[in-house]
């Protein structure tokens, strides 16, 4: 392998990536530049070095493994500060309808717009369109039912935005539901 500072190149790739970047994407980018001279072990060693570097209290960011990839995020101690800035800059908030639609897609994916509308009880055209524009959902294909409706799923950006590695990390409904919201008496 030519004399290159692999850590710096990987750090630059992670820094410049809007979403989490996978080891395979890093390997592809580096091997395109350095003529197939990098391997996965070198990437993992470099990632460990970067993670250790940013673990220091001298940095306000850290390397985090998200959605089977890596991304720089602000450390938790600075959450409130960054949150204040984001609150002031937030111009593109999701409406209640969009949040409901996103939750339905996240828990029931892949799902058609008709199924979303049956669950919500109202037209969801606008919400689905906004979620597609924000790249929080994506089109997976078409259902094998009459009319071949489009199937929607959550995207990688959804996973990054909510800090999830996989969908099993979504809160389970039983964890969120409060017992006082039940109707009638409970049987013993």
TrEMBL record:
SUPFAM superfamilies: Winged helix' DNA-binding domain (SSF46785). The keyword Mitochondrion does not apply. Gene3D superfamilies: Winged helix-like DNA-binding domain superfamily/Winged helix DNA-binding domain. Pfam families: SMC_ScpB. InterPro entries: ScpB_csome_segregation (IPR005234), WH-like_DNA-bd_sf (IPR036388), WH_DNA-bd_sf (IPR036390). GO terms for biological process: cell division; chromosome separation. Keywords: Cell cycle, Cell division, Chromosome partition, Cytoplasm. This is SMC-Scp complex subunit ScpB.
